[in-house]
Amino acid sequence: MVTKLPPWFKKKPAPEVISALKGLLDGLKLHTICESALCPNAAECFSRKTATFLILGDICTRNCTFCAVKKGKPEAVDEEEPEHLLQAVESLGLKYVVLTSVTRDDLDDGGASHFARTIRLLKEKMGVMVEVLIPDFLGSDKSLKMVISAHPEVINHNIETVPRLYHEVRPKADYKRSLELLLKVKRLEPEIVTKSGLMLGLGERREEILQVMQDLREVGCELLTLGQYLRPSPKHHPVARFVPPEEFEEYRAIGKKMGFTEVASAPLVRSSFKAAQLYFKARGTLTLDDSEWSCFSHDF
Predict the structure, then answer these.
(1) Domain tally for the chain?
(2) pLDDT (tens digit, 9 = 90+) per residue, 69-127?
(3) Tell me, what CATH number does 73's domain have?
(4) CA–CA distance from 119 to each of 15, 123, 130, 268, 284 (Å)?
(5) Which range marks the domain in which residue 249 is found?
(6) Is the dihedral of CA 210, 211, 215, 216 positive or negative?
(7) Chain centroid to CA 145
(8) 208 in helix, strand or coil?
(9) Cα of 95 vs its chain's centroid, Å
């Protein structure tokens, strides 16, 4: 187990920036994964007046050992949440919105109808582009089709780690089920961009990472994010190792050769950080030099 942060982690906390945006979100009774998951990039994102919105409450029904999101019995779904989210998007002037949720296995559709309603409202009222990071809906085709029918630009579903570690890290998830979800998206609506991500440093081996990357390519996944796992508390899964930036860059190069449209790979990369840039680069409407991806690694 490793506990001390390596020297390439340079974070610049900006509490006043976080406080300003938090005031807006709290007033609208909205949550962000930035806060709930203790994201190290929160200050950077909040300073740009953006955030990844967490819908369906902030209490998850699963017990993933890597995740800082609260676990337990969720409250009833707030039916006004989509409208409140619309107000936040309008106030912040966002044109690209990223939504995720806690996993709601307690709901018949896993929250899919709430996702769809929120996506439609944002697109119809604001004309924004929407990226969603969704749970597996316990493999329900009906629930997945609800989300697809709302036509988000990107559907992200994180594979998170290698199959061997699922019983430790994602005990209620299923590796094959997650791969099948991404495959179904491409079969049902090929125009939707698919995306996934892994955390490194949980105890995985190099050959296992490469196999997961290959598995993702075989189901048509286009965008990939790779970042360093950071232990939220002593109660969570320990950090097995800190992966150096050079190794992350190596995985990025391998991923590009495998055929991913784009790969964001660096210690502080998270699945929704700078999501719009990744999407536009995938669509061929944004050009980034390799050096520009270093912003994912340093000086937050």
Answers:
(1) 1
(2) 888 999 999 999 999 999 999 988 889 999 999 999 999 999 999 999 999 999 999 99
(3) 3.80.30.20
(4) 30, 6, 7, 28, 24
(5) 15-296
(6) negative
(7) 20
(8) helix
(9) 18
